[in-house]
Specification:
Pfam families: FixH (PF05751). The chain is of the alpha+beta class. The protein has 2 helices and 7 strands; from the N terminus they run ααβββββββ.
Length: 150
């Protein structure tokens, strides 16, 4: 003989169901807050006002015809290989390495030439994934590069 389904059974089912929903939502919210690395831009309105200027800078950079390849050497120094037509000309670069999730402080990098068209950072990067924001230039012409290195 089975017992009848009562209000008490329904109450237990509802409390269990909403308890699971609450626990999952709380856990997911906690994980989301704990892994949030920050904002892309502080003020989206101001960024939208600068957008056309960014497009103009991008077109000017593209017209230079420069290319850059970013790698890490075994000692975790960043190396930048600059492609034609700028490869044989002395170039300067500076960069900032930032942790993608913002959990580590940004690391400013300075570069020295190691061969024609090749630069190497003076500072080594700690282990992990880093986003490199570099500015490479000469005589007022600049190229901006953003690469992820591991």
């Amino acid at each position: 003989m089975t017992r009848p389904f009562t209000g008490r059974h329904m109450t237990i089912i509802l409390i269990t169901f909403f308890g699971v929903v609450f626990a999952v939502n709380f856990t997911m919210a906690r994980l989301a807050i704990g892994s949030f690395g920050g904002t892309v831009v502080d003020n989206s309105y101001v960024a939208s006002q600068k957008f056309n200027g960014w497009l103009k800078d991008a077109r000017a950079q593209k017209s230079l015809g420069w290319t850059a390849g970013v790698t890490l050497d075994p000692d975790r120094h960043v190396q930048i290989a600059i492609g034609a037509p700028a490869a044989k000309v002395a170039m300067e670069a500076n960069a900032t390495a930032s942790h993608p999730l913002g959990r580590a402080a940004d690391i400013p990098l300075s570069f020295v030439p190691i061969a024609p068209g090749r630069l190497r950072s003076v500072e080594a990067l700690p282990a992990g994934r880093w986003t490199l924001h570099a500015t490479i230039g000469r005589n007022g012409d600049n190229m901006r590069v953003m690469e992820t290195v591991q």
